[in-house]
Specification:
- 36% of the residues lie in helices and 23% in strands.
- It has ten helices and 15 strands.
- The protein has a seven-stranded mixed beta sheet, covered by helices on one side.
- β5, α5 and β6 form a beta-alpha-beta unit.
- The longest helix has 20 residues.
- The structure holds nicotinamide-adenine-dinucleotide (NAD) and (2R,3S,4s,5R,6S)-2,3,4,5,6-pentahydroxycyclohexanone (ISE).
- (2R,3S,4s,5R,6S)-2,3,4,5,6-pentahydroxycyclohexanone binds next to α7.
């Protein structure tokens, strides 16, 4: 069965996912596109055979849309996801699930009332080979119980529109999701400390930031977010356990020795770093839907947790205090205790 996908939001990542669903993933076809910029929607649909719809509601209602992909701006996500659930259609939502925790909970309640999983959130790192290998090692017990995790998320530069809170909301959100998954644990508190700021930034921005998380099991995580590091896009993660450690591999790159030096390339953006992860994420999403199964990727509950924890991180940055994340208990529908 071919899964017919309607895409809401034909901007940067929407176009990237339309290309992916058209050229990379088998078993899927983009049949509908919408964007508040109608010209952009028409350009994105050109060559795919997709119809352009006036808005998200019309696209979700269309007979030739089996599943919905939401790639519009974050504050609009909740409305589209709720409409898709009301129509009983599976919906893949790029991060964030919603920008407010209350909206995430409305989605959780709507999906629970529907009685079957429809929502998957676009946390693609869970599909990266390196993180998957780390998870296998952690789950196997080979390094004992994890005690500490050291992470870094570095981007070469960010535009002037990037504000200090985006270090949590837009950037660290990926570590927050992948750590919850890797450790099978919940983040219970966060503190943010700000070292001397780099001179290579717009004046309004606090960069770098060091985020300190504590989990329910008492694991301590330090995450350096440094979005003007200049030298490349660099993602690091190392978990230390009772009897060993496991480290995320760097992307493979040949070593070059010449003129008395040894060098390897460092990637410069997240698009190349996680291209394979995005492909796998969509292959698995489509394969599940084509087989009539529920999605198996990050849940609406994971989306809720990420929004609560990123909001707490912003509060910690602004207050200078340790902030408790105060997540609600996980419902049985999402694997919580009965
Ligand atoms: P973008 O600004 O390039 O594109 C967003 C598009 O959505 C624009 O064309 C805009 O006109 C359209 N739009 C906004 N509201 C709409 C609505 N209600 N209905 C229809 N169209 C609407 O932004 P982007 O970089 O493509 O990011 C989009 C989303 O994807 C964001 O939520 C972002 O956080 C997420 N994202 C995720 C990753 C990742 O690594 N997983 C990477 C980049 C972006
Ligand atoms: C961006 O918003 C993303 O979502 C990327 O995946 C992330 O790695 C990047 O640093 C963010 O700015």
């Amino acid at each position: 069965m071919t899964v017919r996908v309607g895409v809401i939001g034909a901007g940067w990542i929407g176009q990237e996912h339309i290309r992916r669903l058209t050229d990379v993933v088998t078993g899927a076809r983009v049949t509908a596109v919408t964007d508040i910029d109608a010209e952009r929607a028409a350009q994105a649909a050109a060559g795919t055979g997709a119809r352009v719809h006036a808005d998200g509601a019309a696209l979700i209602a269309a007979d030739d849309v089996d599943a919905v992909l939401v790639t519009s701006w974050g504050p609009t996500h909740a409305e589209h996801v709720l409409n898709a659930i009301a129509a009983g259609k599976p919906v893949f939502c790029e991060k964030p699930l919603a920008t407010a925790a209350e909206d995430c909970l409305r989605i959780v309640e709507a999906e629970t009332a529907h009685g079957r999983r429809l929502v998957q959130v676009g946390f693609m790192r869970r599909y990266d080979q390196g993180y998957r290998q780390m998870k296998e090692v952690l789950d196997s017990g080979r390094i004992g119980e994890p005690l500490m995790v050291h992470c870094a998320h570095r981007n070469p530069t960010v535009p002037e529109s990037y504000t200090s809170d985006m270090a949590a909301l837009d950037t660290a959100v990926h570590e927050i999701d992948v750590l919850r998954w890797l450790l099978d644990d919940e983040i219970v508190s966060v503190q943010v400390v700000t070292p001397r700021s780099t001179s290579k930034r717009f004046a309004h921005l606090k960069d770098p930031q060091i985020m300190l998380f504590e989990t329910a099991k008492g694991i301590r995580v330090d995450l350096e977010v440094f979005v003007n590091c200049q030298y490349g896009y660099d993602i690091q993660c190392e978990a230390v356990g009772d009897t060993g450690l496991v480290r995320l591999p760097d992307p493979s790159a040949v070593g070059v020795r010449t003129a008395g030096q040894h060098s390897t390339q460092v990637l410069t953006d997240w698009v190349g770093r996680f291209a394979d992860a995005f492909d796998t994420e969509f292959r698995e999403w489509i394969a599940n839907l084509a087989a009539g199964n529920e999605p198996t990727g990050p849940t609406a509950w994971d989306g809720y947790a990420a929004t609560v924890i990123t909001s707490s991180t912003v509060e910690a940055l602004e207050s200078g205090h340790v902030v408790a994340t105060d997540l609600k208990p996980r419902p049985v529908f999402y694997g919580g205790a009965a």
